Amino acid sequence: MRGFINWHIQKLNDCTDFKGRAVVVPPRKGSVAALNEQDGLYTLCIQGYHDQQEMNERMIIQSISRGISTYTDYEEFLHVAENPDLRFVFSNTTEAGLVLRKEDRLEDRPQASFPGKLTAFLYHRFKAFAGDEQKGLIILPCELVEQNGDRLKEYVISMAAEWELPPAFFTWIKEANTFCNTLVDRIVPGFSKKAADIVRKEEGYIDELLVTAEYYHLFFIEAPAFVKKELPFQEAGLNVLFLVEDIAPYRMSKVRILNGAHTAMVPIAYSCGLETVKEAVDDEHVGPFVRRMLEEEVLPGLELPEDELLLYTQSVWDRFCNPFVKHQLLDIALNGVSKFRTRNLPSLLDYVERKKQLPMKLVFSLSSLIYFYRAHAGRVKDDETVLTLMKEAWDGRKPF
């Protein structure tokens, strides 16, 4: 989010009269102390190529007002809902975060799931403004999940029904709030010690929250026309496309090609002793394997024209080869099982449907993922349920 959404907000502030500030709320347990100690400020280093020219941009992002942890300051989190100027909610809790958890309760402090937290937040705002339709929000989930806006709206309504909230709240959710389907495309490796050391040497300050990102960015937003007016991204020169039609074909291509390649390569490359995406694509075995997987097993199942898909695949490969971006494989490995289910399993099943046989490269990636959870158990980060399931399966207590 800090390498994408908060940068977008910063560009809006710099180039238009938007004047927006964001409150950061981590979806899981984690301290926001470092963010607040830096007054929400951090350095963004953008590196890559544009029109065959090397781009190296460094800027201080000032679009965050503060961070709030729902695990230590839940009431402060709800207090944000009382702000009459609040208009937008952006989220990226990964594919594992956009799930319905019916065990959540309104009285929980906090709710375990993101949809649960959002429902409680919206209900608090509904009550604070007595159901005023002018106080609805524009909600833009950025999780790589199909129809993410529609799905989040469905989860909020389901959560409200589970909690037996008043009928007027359901009407307010449906009529006063706008849930947008989105698609984000930018590689954001995150913190880089090398970049932080350069900043310390050249600028004279230490930034524990520095973020690196590639130059390329693309943001699809499926929304009514008024959203484009309220978020004048294009006036700020940003590569944002507002669509009234379905973004599904674009989302499918991006998720299955770029994100699918990431998820497929991680267990294979890491088990071969490689550490970054660039090392993986440069490797004489891993690189060609992943490229053939895309061309032979993934692209034929996509809806966009073949020439567009081949061009996009080549652009993705060029981005993977960006020498400035050190994208750690272990960072991509976070929540690997849910990522494979979203990014790679649909390609695998489509191939079986079309060919009536297994796609051997995707199958090998899946088997490598299962092995990865055993061979590197101490370094894998995932939901406790997934980690327990994998351990029990490898121990022979439960079958896969």
Describe this structure in words.
The protein is an alpha/beta fold and 400 residues long. It has 2 domains: 5-184 and 214-243, Rossmann fold, CATH 3.40.50; 248-394, N-(1-d-carboxylethyl)-l-norvaline Dehydrogenase, domain 2 (Orthogonal Bundle), CATH 1.10.1040. Helix content is 47%, strand content 13%. The chain is built from 17 helices and 11 strands. The strands form 4 sheets. It has a 3-stranded mixed β-sheet, covered by helices on one side. A 3-stranded parallel β-sheet has the order 5-6-7. A 3-stranded mixed β-sheet has the order 8-10-11. Helix 8 links the parallel strand 10 and strand 11. Helix 4 packs across helix 5 and helix 9 runs antiparallel to helix 11. The protein is globular. The chain starts with a helix and ends in a 6-residue tail after the last helix.
Can you lay out the helices and strands and say which pair or pack?
Elements (H helix, E strand, L loop, with lengths): L4 H11 L6 E3 L8 H5 L4 E9 L2 E9 L2 E4 L6 H7 L7 E4 L22 H15 L9 E4 L6 H15 L4 H10 L1 E2 L1 E5 L7 H11 L7 E4 L3 E5 L2 H6 L9 E4 L4 H24 L5 H6 L3 H13 L7 H15 L8 H4 L3 H8 L1 H11 L4 H16 L8 H11 L6
Parallel strand pairs: 1-4, 2-9, 5-6, 6-7, 10-11
Antiparallel strand pairs: 2-3, 8-10
Helix pairs in contact: 4-5, 5-6, 9-11, 9-12, 9-14, 9-16
Biggest sheet, spatial arrangement of strands: 3-2-9
Q: Got a strand count?
A: 11
Q: Report the end-to-end length measured between terminal Cα atoms.
A: 34 Å
Instruction: Give helix % range.
Output: 40-55%
At the fourth level of CATH, the homologous superfamily of the largest domain is NAD(P)-binding Rossmann-like Domain
**The biggest beta sheet, please?**
3 strands, mixed
Low-confidence segments, given as residue ranges, are none
The CATH architecture designation of the largest domain is 3-Layer(aba) Sandwich
